[in-house]
Specification:
Blueprint lengths: L5 H7 L4 E6 L4 H12 L3 E7 L1 H11 L7 E4 L3 H13 L5 E4 L4 H9 L12 E7 L7 E4 L9 H17 L6 E5 L10 H14 L7 E6 L2 H4 L1 H7 L11 E3 L3 H13 L4 E7 L5 E2 L7 H17 L1
Parallel strand pairs: 1-2, 1-4, 2-3, 4-11, 6-9, 7-8, 7-9
Antiparallel strand pairs: 5-6, 5-10, 10-11
Length: about 300
């Protein structure tokens, strides 16, 4: 993929999926869902403050009959009802609306009523830039606060499910830090060494892993040549495995607000794709995320 928007072309080839939105009473969310509806991507189910949802639909002059709208008393009920629809196979993709991420994920991971499937849920952000000829997969930028080396391997396993669904073969994985040498005082470099050793042992497959790297040496061949770095991953990374949520979040938001990157966001590890974007993300980013969720649903 050259641009995040390429996911729209992939989604157009797939059958429409049932999209349920938790706390759907948000203008940007409904705009994105309606765009996806017009493209034939989804059969939308909107859960939340039904009066506000209907007000937005009427104000935007969308077709009310195209939506199944379910009223919920609060965000907790919105989350529970949305997850229930997925669990009972009455919906295919879950999307976060105007709701705190923690509330939604609490319903997702509930041991009795939730839809968690993998050992660890993790977030993947897709980003593309005007001056870079490929999409970057940055993980984890939104969920896992301070993953250890073993958890980072689980995060890597999750993102590889997504790259496989998108048609990637042996994507290049760069383990992000601030330097290229292992420093015992810098935990991210020690984790990188552990993860790389697991790759070399054959315990991590279907990708090429190397690190630690500072970000410039994962995205810029000029920086790689200047520093004399010799690695298959250097300057060409597809996946950026972040050291912690602070680094991931800063990277993501700097990309969006200063570099004007195209973006999409998804949580992997549940029984259905979970579309999760920032509340500040545009309707376009939310549409790209819906398309990404469709591809993940059909191809995984």
């Amino acid at each position: 993929m050259k641009q995040v928007s390429d996911v729209i072309k992939k989604a157009k080839k797939l059958a429409a999926a049932r999209l349920v939105v938790a706390a759907a009473h948000d203008e940007y969310v409904i705009e994105a869902v309606n765009n996806a509806l017009e493209l034939g991507f989804v059969h939308p189910i909107l859960i939340g403050n039904s009066k506000e949802i209907l007000r937005i639909i009427e104000e935007k002059k969308y077709d009310e009959k195209s939506y199944l709208i379910i009223d919920a008393n609060d965000d907790f009920e919105s989350a529970e009802l949305s997850v229930k629809l997925i669990k009972e196979k009455n919906a295919d993709i879950l999307m976060k609306g105007l709701i705190d991420t923690n509330i939604l994920l609490k319903a997702v991971v509930n041991r009795e009523t939730g839809i968690r499937e993998a050992k660890l849920l993790s977030h993947v952000a897709l980003l593309s830039y005007h001056k870079l000829n490929r999409v970057l997969f940055a993980t984890d930028c939104a969920m896992n606060i301070a993953p250890d080396a073993n958890q980072k391997i689980l995060i890597l396993e999750n993102v590889l499910k997504l790259t496989k669904a998108l048609g990637y073969k042996n994507p290049l994985v760069g383990i992000v830090s601030a330097v290229e040498k292992v420093n015992l005082k810098m935990a991210s470099t020690v984790d990188a060494q552990i993860i790389k050793e697991e790759f070399l042992k054959g315990n991590i497959i279907d990708c090429v892993v190397d690190g630690p790297f500072a970000v410039d040496n994962l995205v810029s061949m000029e920086a790689v040549k200047h520093k004399g770095i010799n690695s298959l991953v250097a300057g060409k990374a597809d996946i950026l495995l972040m050291p912690n949520i602070e680094a991931g979040n800063v990277f993501y938001k700097t990309s969006v607000f200063l570099a004007h990157a195209e973006t999409a966001g998804i949580i992997i590890g549940a029984k259905a794709p979970i579309i999760l974007t920032s509340r500040a993300d545009s309707a376009e980013a939310k549409l790209f995320s819906i398309a990404l969720g469709m591809v993940m649903y059909h191809e995984s």
